[in-house]
Amino acid sequence: MPDALVFALEEPQDRRFMQAAIRYAMRHVGRTGTNPSVATLIVRDDGDGRWPRIVGRGVTALGGRPHAETVALAEAGELARGATAYVTLEPCAHHGRTPPCSEALVRAGVARVVSAAADPDPRVDGKGHRMLIEGGVAVTPGVLAAEAARTIDGYLTRHRRGRPGITMKMALSRDGKIGVRGGGQVKITGPVSNAQTHLVRARHGAIVVGAGTVLEDDPRLDCRLPGMADRSPARIILDPNLRISPQMTVAQTARAVPTMVAAFEDADPARRAELAAAGVAFVACVADPDSGRVALPELLEDLAATGFTSLLVEGGAEIAASFLSAGLVDRLILIEGAIEIGEAGVAAPVDIATARERYQLLRQDVFGGDRWFEFACEGA
């Protein structure tokens, strides 16, 4: 067995700088492909009585390369020698298109590395720390690990469970309804909550809805924050029998925002051809033997294999209930609006009281007349 690693103790300033690194990592969440959005801060303390200062910073580049450590070291230059690097994920240890980040930190003369989340990728998983220590660098792991993990939970889930990380978001009326069946879209929440929802969209690789939502609401499913249209996630529509038409907004805009339909192999070939001509792509799916609906575990495994690490489920009651009953929700966001819908409303598959009992509350906010709750679900 390999020798046990000897780690350096946490120092008083470590949490402050790691908190800053975690905030910086949020800059590219959802935009780094199969790689996680990681941040690195190079901090120098010359021991002259001044506060330690950041001399280099980096975040995983768009698309996933270069890594945060490489960017931060380039900015720091010679000032990295003898400095401390704060990294939100264990530095990589494997050779790919570029040398390992752990090796780059050693070559740069960094004296100490403070890391947050552990990397479950078998090519890393402790090997990065070992490479640093063997190179003479002191290592302090696990600083604010849980907080850092939340910014890269999709990446972590993909490696640990073989599927993308799943966030489910639902807007609930004050009386626990999510809409009116056959009544089209119902405005449940206000503008501040809606803006927060678009920010959540921008941080996920794709939005997942069912065909019923598309047929009833004809939604755009994009990010409409000013200046962030290019951060609209892909759209995945669960439509096994191809009920949506090429005239729907998601099909009409498929060349601007990537749009995929999960359909059974034998679904209407003429409709498939029409949607394909509009720019819609397809992902094969199979039926669950009990319900006849899309078999979600198999679909999610396929989506992970194509590179998706995070999905935002915004579908209706049936889709939401399917993901919840299958234990496939890692993060649950419930926004309670001020309106009441009444008996004609569609009941939510989970309410705030039930979520409080079953899941860990991570965040609670008030946005105007709305209440926003975020929960971690079932081992997430």
Automatic annotation (TrEMBL):
Name of the protein described by the UniProt record: Riboflavin biosynthesis protein RibD
UniProt keyword list: Hydrolase, Metal-binding, Multifunctional enzyme, NADP, Oxidoreductase, Riboflavin biosynthesis, Zinc
UniProt cross-references to PROSITE patterns, sorted A to Z: CYT_DCMP_DEAMINASES_1, CYT_DCMP_DEAMINASES_2
Biological process, per Gene Ontology: riboflavin biosynthetic process
Active site per the UniProt annotation: E69
Chain positions recorded as NADP(+) binding sites: A171, T213, D217, L221, G316, A317, E318, I319, A320, A321, S322
Domain of life: Bacteria
Residues at which Zn(2+) binds: H67, C92, C101
Reactions the enzyme catalyzes: 2,5-diamino-6-hydroxy-4-(5-phosphoribosylamino)-pyrimidine + H2O + H(+) = 5-amino-6-(5-phospho-D-ribosylamino)uracil + NH4(+); 5-amino-6-(5-phospho-D-ribitylamino)uracil + NADP(+) = 5-amino-6-(5-phospho-D-ribosylamino)uracil + NADPH + H(+)
Pathway where it operates: Cofactor biosynthesis; riboflavin biosynthesis; 5-amino-6-(D-ribitylamino)uracil from GTP: step 2/4; Cofactor biosynthesis; riboflavin biosynthesis; 5-amino-6-(D-ribitylamino)uracil from GTP: step 3/4
Cofactor(s) recorded in Swiss-Prot or TrEMBL: Zn(2+)
Cofactor note: Binds 1 zinc ion.
Family, similarity comment: In the C-terminal section; belongs to the HTP reductase family.
Function of the protein: Converts 2,5-diamino-6-(ribosylamino)-4(3h)-pyrimidinone 5'-phosphate into 5-amino-6-(ribosylamino)-2,4(1h,3h)-pyrimidinedione 5'-phosphate.
Gene3D superfamilies: Cytidine Deaminase, domain 2, Dihydrofolate Reductase, subunit A
GO MF entries: 5-amino-6-(5-phosphoribosylamino)uracil reductase activity; diaminohydroxyphosphoribosylaminopyrimidine deaminase activity; zinc ion binding
EC nos: 3.5.4.26, 1.1.1.193
Residues the record lists as binding substrate: R201, R224, E314
InterPro entries: APOBEC/CMP_deaminase_Zn-bd, CMP_dCMP_dom, Cytidine_deaminase-like, DHFR-like_dom_sf, Eubact_RibD, RibDG_C, Riboflavin_Biosynth_HTPR
Domain CMP/dCMP-type deaminase per the UniProt entry, residue ranges: 12-139
Pfam family, one: dCMP_cyt_deam_1
Record CDD domains: Riboflavin_deaminase-reductase
